[in-house]
Each structure stands twice: as C-alpha cells, then as structure tokens.
Amino acid sequence: MRHLTYLAVLGGCLAGALWLEPFLRVGVLRRWRRLVLTVVPVAVVFVLWDLAAIAAGHWDFDPEQTTGIVLPGRLPLDELLFFLVVPVCAILGFEAVRRVLRWKAGDE
Fold this sequence. Notes:
The chain is mainly alpha-helical. The protein has four helices and two strands, in the order αααββα. The protein has helices at 5-18, 20-24, 32-55, 77-101; strands at residues 70-71, 75-76. It is a multi-pass membrane protein.
C-alpha cells in the first residue's frame, strides 16, 4: 500500500480543492482551455528540469512510494501528475479567495 503514497497525497490535494469549483462557483474547470494553457507550459518546464536532474544523478524517487509506472527518462507517472494537480489546486484556491474577497480580474 505504501506505493500509493504519492497518489494519496495528490488525491488529498484534489479533495481539498475541487469542492471550491461547485461551492464557490470559481469557474476554473469551466474555462478548461485557459487552465490548460496556464498549467501545461509550466509543467513541461518542470518535467524537463526533473529529467535533467535525474539524468545527472541529482534527483531520484523512492520506488516504494510511487506507483511503479515510469515514463521515459525514469520519471514516475506520479511526478508528472504532481506538476498538473498541484497547480490546478493552487489556481482553484486563488480563484476561491478572489471570489470571496470580490477581487476583480482582467477578464471580467
């Protein structure tokens, strides 16, 4: 069961943030193209950074705490998901604060 630790943490992050979408109507998931254009470029940069660190021997992952699904370059699937899930949760949190405090955004 320990091999699901990373996924469990990501699941906890999602559980702590996804409820903001329907409850506060933040509209993050509704504007999915905008979300993709925000998250994917940053994820690509960090995946490349991780791959370089792994190749140089500076960075590694505990195989007992990951699913064991490894992408090219010895990058665990869990790590790729981290670079997608955590930014989405952060954006949901930011938009929730913005909604509650009634901050205006440039797109309104």
